[in-house]
Amino acid sequence: MPTLDSLFRHRVAAPERRMLKILLALLLGGLVTVMLVDLLNDAGILARIYFVFGGTDWSFAGQCILLPCL
Question: In this structure, what are the phi and psi dihedrals at residue 41, rounded to the nearest 5 degrees?
Fold first, then answer.
């Protein structure tokens, strides 16, 4: 029966896809976390780029929110 064979193959491949989705979610979550931490710190490179091109000033100048200032 070809239908049962195709269903079996799909179920065998499902754990690999699930693991790939989990790893991708962890990677993207980590990337977003790093970006947010960088933006919340005045010394972060992303924060500097954002505020230079955005034309605004960091309201907590000289104060780092999450990490110690380097």
Answer: -105, 135
